[in-house]
Write a structure and sequence with these properties.
The complex is a heterodimer of chains A (about 325) and B (about 260). With about 325 residues, chain A is an alpha/beta fold. Chain A is built from 12 helices and 14 strands. Chain A folds into 2 domains: about 220 residues, 3-Layer(aba) Sandwich (Rossmann fold); about 60 residues, Alpha-Beta Plaits, CATH 3.30.70. In chain A, the strands form 3 sheets. Chain A has a 6-stranded mixed β-sheet with strand order 6-7-8-3-9-10, with helices on both faces. The longest helix of chain A has 22 residues. Chain B has one domain. Classes of the chains: A alpha/beta (about 325), B mainly alpha (about 260). Chains A and B meet through helix 2 and helix 3 of A and helix 1 and helix 5 of B. Chain A: One of its GO terms (molecular function) is ATP binding. Chain A: Keywords: ATP-binding, Cell membrane, Membrane, Nucleotide-binding, Translocase, Transport.
Chain lengths: ~325, ~260
C-alpha cells in the first residue's frame, strides 16, 4: 500500500522550474531515501509534501489526504526532523515534548506516557529536565526524532538528519530509525548526503535538475551499473581522459584528482590499461559499483563534493548564528 | 478542532511566560526602565517647573500626572518589542515547529498576544508597588482595575508587534519599524504632557493615537480617589476601553494573518 503518492508534481518559481513534474510512490513501512545534488529540488519536494510550500501543479497524497486540500490532516500524519535544529533551546527536553504534544492534540492522559516512551527510546530520560541549550548536537537530533514521533505519525520526514554529527552519533541515530520501522511500522522519508547511509534505505530516488533520474533499491541500482569501476590516478588527467575515451570507446569521468571509468571486466582491463599507457599511470584500483558511482553516473557529480558544500554551509550558518546572538 | 485550538493558544501562552520568567535580563530591563523614567524624568521635570497646566486650576503634582503615563509607556514598549521573539524563533528554527503543526495559524498569534498581555500585567504589578514614590497611595481595588487595562493594551499592541515581526526578516528591520511607531505613540499619548496644553495640530495627532485612550483609562483607574486630578481625565473609562478594544480588533486582523504567507 502506498502511503505517499506523488503525481506529476511541478513547482515553478517565476521562470525557473525547480521540480519538473515528478511522480513516485512510497510504500507503507519502507525507508525511502531521497538523494540529489544541492538545488536539485529535494527540499522543495519535501516542503510541498509537508504542506509548507504550495505546488504549482500536480497532485500529492499523504496517508490518503490531499496535500493541497487537507493540510492540517497531512500535518497530523507526519513527523518532521528538519535539517536545522528546531527546538526551543531555552526550554527543557520535557517542555519541548509537552509543547509538541499540545500542538498535536495528544490526549492529556496519553501525553505523559508517550513522553516517557519516546525519551526512553532515544535514551534521554535522565536529561529530561535539562535545558536543551546544554545539549550536544547528537542529543538535540535524538530529541527532535523523539518529538517527531510523539504524536504517532504515519510518516517521519528526516531532512539530512545526521549532517554535522560524528560517526558514532550517526550510527546511533540510524539504529533508532531502523528500529522505528521494525517496531512501529512507520514509514521514513529521508534525504541524506552520506552514501553509506543511503545503503540502509529500502529504496532510493535520485533527483537531479528537478527530475527523478533513478529510483530503485540500492542493490538494484548498483547492479544496473553492471561492470566494475576502475579508478586511475595519472600524471596528466586531462590528456589521458581523452586518450582513454578514444582508445576504448568508454566514458571517462574526471572526478577531482582521479579518473573514473566503468568497464565490463576490471580484472582484464587493468593490465591492458597499464601496458597502453605505461609510465603515465601512477595508481589503479578496481571496485564493485557503490552508490557513489550510481550518483556520479546519474547526476554527473560526485556526492562527496556535495557533502563538502553542505558541511561548509552548515558550519557557516552556525557561526553566523553565534555572531548574531 | 475547538479543543486543538484552545490547547494551541494555551501552550503558546504558557511558553511565552516560561521564557519570560527564565530570562533574568528581561526582568531587569522591565523594572529598570520605568523606574528610571519615574525617578529621573519625573523628578527632574517636576522640580524644573511648576506644573500649572492641569485644567481647572487645581495644582496636581507632576509625579501624580506622569505615573499612569509611565505605566502606559512600559506596557507599550514591552508589548511592542515582544514581537521580536518571532524573529528569534525564525532565526533559531523553532518557528518551523510551530508552523508545521496541525493548528490554524491565527491561534498562534492569539496565544502569543495573550502571553504578552499577561506579562505586561506583571509589569503593571511591579509598577503599582512603586506608586508611593509617585506620592500616590492606591487601593487594592485600583490595582485590580489597572491590571486588566494593562493586559488589554498589551494584547492590542502585542498583536501589532506580531504583525510587524511576522512580516520581517531581520531584527534590525523590526527594531527600525517598531521604534518608528512606538516613539510617536508614546510622545503623543499624553503620558508626558496633557492634551489640553498642546497646540491644535498636536492635539489632532494625540486624538488619533490609540495609546492616548490606554493612558486615559489608566488615569481613570488610578485617579479614582483623587478629586483634584479628575480634571486631567478626557473621557470615561468605558469610552477609553471601547477605543482600545476597537484598536485591538484592528491589530488582531493584521496580527492573525502574520504567519499565513510563511513557509
Amino acid at each position: 500500500m502506498s502511503i505517499i503518492i506523488v503525481d506529476h508534481l511541478v513547482k515553478r518559481y517565476g521562470d525557473f522550474e525547480a521540480v519538473k513534474g515528478i511522480s513516485f510512490q512510497v510504500d507503507k513501512g519502507e525507508v525511502f531515501g531521497f538523494l540529489g545534488p544541492n538545488g536539485a529540488g529535494k527540499s522543495t519536494t519535501i516542503k510541498i509534501l509537508c504542506t509548507l510550500l504550495t505546488m504549482t501543479s500536480g497532485k500529492a497524497l499523504l496517508n490518503g489526504y490531499d496535500v493541497n486540500r487537507e493540510p492540517l490532516k497531512v500535518r497530523q500524519s507526519i513527523g518532521l526532523v528538519f535539517q536545522d535544529y528546531s527546538l526551543d533551546d531555552r526550554l527543557t527536553a520535557e517542555e519541548n515534548l509537552y509543547f509538541h504534544g499540545m500542538l498535536y492534540n495528544v490526549p492529556r492522559a496519553l501525553l505523559k506516557e508517550r513522553m516517557e516512551q519516546v525519551l526512553a527510546m532515544v535514551e534521554l530520560t535522565e536529561r529530561r529536565k535539562d535545558l536543551v541549550r546544554n545539549f550536544s548536537g547528537g542529543m538535540k537530533r535524538r530529541l527532535e526524532i523523539a518529538r517527531g514521533l510523539l504524536h504517532h505519525p504515519q510518516v517521519l520526514f528526516l531532512d539530512e538528519p545526521t549532517i554535522g554529527l560524528d560517526p558514532q552519533t550517526r550510527s546511533a541515530i540510524w539504529e533508532h530509525v531502523l528500529r522505528l520501522r521494525d517496531e512501529l511500522g512507520i514509514t521514513v522519508f529521508m534525504t541524506t548526503h552520506y552514501m553509506e547511509e543511503a545503503e540502509h534505505c529500502d529504496r532510493i530516488a535520485i533527483i537531479d535538475h528537478g527530475e527523478i533520474v533513478a529510483l530503485d533499491a540500492p542493490k538494484a541500482l548498483k547492479e544496473d551499473i553492471g561492470g566494475d569501476m576502475v579508478t586511475v590516478t595519472t600524471t596528466n588527467n586531462k590528456q589521458l581522459a581523452e586518450e582513454i575515451r578514444q582508445r576504448y570507446g568508454i566514458p571517462v569521468v574526471e572526478d577531482g584528482t582521479v579518473l573514473r571509468m566503468e568497464v565490463e571486466d576490471g580484472a582484464s582491463f587493468v593490465p591492458r590499461l597499464a601496458v597502453d599507457f605505461a609510465g603515465m599511470i601512477t595508481s589503479v584500483s578496481v571496485h564493485e559499483p557503490t552508490l557513489d558511482d550510481v550518483f556520479l553516473k546519474t547526476t554527473g557529480r560526485a556526492i562527496r563534493d556535495e557533502l563538502l558544500d553542505e558541511k561548509e554551509r552548515f558550519r557557516q550558518r552556525r557561526l553566523g548564528r553565534r555572531r548574531g546572538r | 478542532m475547538l479543543e486543538s485550538v484552545l490547547k494551541t493558544i494555551y501552550v503558546i501562552w504558557y511558553r511565552e511566560l516560561i521564557r519570560f520568567f527564565r530570562e533574568k535580563s528581561q526582568w531587569a530591563g522591565m523594572i529598570m526602565q520605568p523606574t528610571l523614567y519615574l525617578t529621573f524624568v519625573g523628578t527632574g521635570i517636576a522640580s524644573a517647573m511648576t506644573f500649572r497646566q492641569a485644567p481647572g486650576g487645581t495644582p496636581v503634582d507632576y509625579m501624580t500626572f506622569i505615573y499612569p503615563g509611565i505605566i502606559g509607556m512600559s506596557v507599550l514598549f514591552t508589548s511592542m518589542f515582544s514581537g521580536i521573539s518571532i524573529i528569534w524563533d525564525r532565526e533559531f528554527g523553532f518557528l518551523k515547529e510551530i508552523l508545521v503543526a496541525p493548528v490554524p495559524r491565527w491561534a498562534i498569534s492569539v496565544g502569543k498576544a495573550l502571553g504578552i498581555g499577561t506579562i505586561v500585567s506583571f509589569q503593571g504589578t511591579i509598577l503599582l508597588i512603586l506608586s508611593p514614590f509617585a506620592g500616590l497611595s492606591l487601593t487594592l481595588w485600583t490595582a485590580l482595575k489597572v491590571l486588566p487595562i494593562c493586559a488589554l493594551v498589551g494584547f492590542a499592541i502585542g498583536l501589532l508587534g506580531i504583525s510587524i515581526a511576522g512580516r520581517m526578516e531581520s531584527m534590525q528591520g523590526f527594531q527600525l519599524i517598531s521604534n518608528f511607531l512606538t516613539m510617536p505613540m508614546f510622545f503623543l499619548s499624553g503620558a508626558m504632557f496633557p492634551l489640553h496644553s498642546a497646540p491644535q495640530w498636536l492635539q489632532v495627532l494625540m486624538v488619533i493615537d490609540p495609546l492616548t485612550y490606554g493612558v486615559d483609562a489608566l488615569r481613570n483607574a488610578i485617579y479614582a480617589g483623587i478629586p483634584e486630578a479628575q480634571a486631567i481625565l478626557q473621557h470615561s473609562i468605558a469610552y477609553d476601553l471601547s477605543i482600545v478594544g476597537l484598536f485591538s480588533i484592528v491589530t488582531a486582523a493584521t496580527g492573525v494573518t502574520a504567519f499565513n504567507r510563511q513557509g
